[in-house]
Design a protein that fits this description.
Length: 282
């Protein structure tokens, strides 16, 4: 397939994609800081995400990616602008949106099973139903036999599988992944990306994947939105018109390398600016 058929740069004034499930309009987040000027983390960020789409958000470290995801999760509120998911304005967390955190965020004193059960606290399921579903989700992510293990007895990759099982157990419409493989070694990460690719296909969840890893974004996403240095705004969007799941051989094709390079060419200037921002601010 020729490159120009697989990747298209979207003009930012393109009409909204068909039937958006997530509608983010003019989002802004300003953090008040003690004895310092307020910090603007996100500015004028507008984005529509199609049902079932896997959308990658990529940008320099500290640009505001987690802040955007937390607002979609309802864990933080916007300073201005709005987020609508499935026709309803987001005003707090809800079971239709599940988040997977970079640092796993597991309860250390609870077993893998209880961590997944805990994630279903806001659902109306009985204890028996939650346990049964937690077992099934752990099995699906390859953790049968590890139900009773505490997080400290699990590897990083296993902990993140528990995090993913916990998110999937609520049957979310929207899956929010915040650098889910960021804390893992390169080999574990590659394996988990393959699993994730299959899982996203099976589930059909609309997914926002925050990452700083360009290869990960090209491998997993239908569309990649490159963010500027802080405050995060959209710099450019790339559509990757290759059917998912793409299979591990895709990683070694010239097409893949070229796509990663195109994203990097867009991102590079923002990373450089972001680094000088960090130096100036000390
Ligand atoms: N609760 C907070 N209070 C003050 N500043 C914050 C808070 N959360 C994040 N920030 C700041 O907002 C900016 C964006 O943070 P974040 O969204 O975590 O970046 P990213 O996920 O892109 O690395 C950073 O400068 C960070 O220090
Ligand atoms: Mg982050």
């Amino acid at each position: 397939m020729a490159l120009n058929q697989t990747l298209s740069v979207q003009r930012l004034d393109d009409p909204a994609p068909d039937s958006p499930i997530i509608e983010i309009s003019h989002l802004q987040k300003v953090f008040a800081q003690r004895k310092k000027a307020p910090l603007e983390a996100v500015t004028d960020f507008s984005l529509d995400v199609r049902r079932g789409e896997v959308l990658g958000l990529i940008g320099p470290s500290g640009c505001g990616k987690t802040t955007i995801l937390r607002m979609v999760a309802g864990l933080d509120s916007p300073s201005s602008g709005s987020i609508v998911v499935d026709g309803k304005e987001v005003t707090g967390p809800g079971p239709e949106r599940a988040m997977v955190f970079q640092d796993f965020a597991l309860l250390p004193w609870q077993s893998a099973l209880e961590n997944v059960v805990f994630g279903m606290a806001a659902t109306k399921l009985s204890r028996e139903e939650r346990v049964a579903r937690a077992r099934a989700e752990l099995a699906r992510v390859g953790l049968s036999g590890f139900e009773d293990h505490l997080p400290k007895a699990l590897s990083g990759g296993m902990k993140q599988r528990v995090g993913l099982a916990r998110a999937l157990a609520v049957n979310p419409t929207v899956l929010l992944l915040d650098e889910p493989f960021g804390a893992l070694d390169a080999q574990t990460k590659t394996l988990l990306q393959d699993d994730m690719s299959a899982t996203l296909q099976e589930e059909g969840c609309t997914t926002l994947l925050v990452t700083h890893d360009m290869s990960e974004a090209v491998y997993l996403c239908d569309r990649i939105v490159v963010l500027t240095n802080r405050p995060a705004r959209i710099s450019q969007a790339f559509s990757i018109d290759i059917p998912r799941p793409r299979g591990e051989r895709f990683r070694s094709t010239p097409e893949f390398t070229e796509l990663v390079d195109q994203v990097w060419q867009e991102l590079k200037a923002h990373v450089t600016l972001s680094n000088s921002q960090a130096v100036v601010e000390g």
